Amino acid sequence: MERLNESRIGAVITEAFAVRASTATESTLHAQHGAALLVGLDGDVTVTEPGRASVRGRVVVVPAHQPHAVASPGPTLGLLYDPELASHVASYAHGRGGAFPLEGRLAARLESALTAHRASLSQPEVLAGLAREYADWLVKELPRSEPDPRIARVLEALRTPDTDWRLAAARTRLSPAHLRALFVRDVGMPIRTFQLWRQLLVAVAASASLDATSAAHLAGFADLAHFSRTCRRMLGYSPTALHNGLLS
């Protein structure tokens, strides 16, 4: 998520992704734990990163954890995906050093799908459908090495908030240090960071229908203050700002 200066057309947040259509986008420097996909309807999106030349393109991908700022003067679709898809992006982006323009057949498909639904971007179901369709294409077109089966089992447990993932971790018979190292290698972030990210997405999605305190407890946060701190650090917004600005 960027700290945005824009007029929103439509937005959806779920446990797996966030998607926002806007008339224009301009963000401050920030970083997030998911992979960002930015698509300009009428012109290029420009992504600026510290110490690197600006990246421009109709479709720009920003890997997870990459500090960047975004500028797009026209209608823009911004998507943020959870670390599972981010790992596909990370494998493809290896050696590029940061954000990169997406070109060729995949970029054309993304642009075409967005153009076809341009008149309906205020509808949540259309935005969610585009986000899922884009994710399917990215997974197929940006192959990655499959994670270690033991890490895959831990990941599956982490996706369910009320499951004790430590039981799955114990069954791997890996030492804690080895488990942490394999997890970072295959997922791209520490276990605790992934767990917090998943909790945050669950809480933000739940806050569409629940008050912030109830959403925080549902996702497993100790209290509202913990949810608020995590939300600001990982997304750049307070829970209230997300509810009022993104979900209303």
Would you kindly provide a written description of the structure presented here, covering whatever features stand out?
Helix content is 46%, strand content 17%. The chain has 248 residues and is an alpha+beta fold. It has a 6-stranded antiparallel sheet with strand order 1-2-9-4-7-10. A 4-stranded antiparallel sheet has the order 3-8-5-6, with no helix packed on it. The protein is globular, with a radius of gyration of 18 Å.
Q: Poorly predicted ranges (pLDDT <50, ≥5 residues)?
A: 1-6
Count of extended strands? 10
Structural class label = alpha+beta
Adjacency order of strands in the biggest sheet: 1-2-9-4-7-10
Taking the sheet with the most strands, its summary is:
6 strands, antiparallel
Shape: globular
Euclidean distance between termini CA atoms: 17 Å
Number of continuous helical runs: 10
Rg calculated over all Cα atoms: 18 Å
Element-level helix/strand string: EEEEEEEEEHEHHHHHHHHH
Name the assembly state.
single chain
Helix content: 40-55%
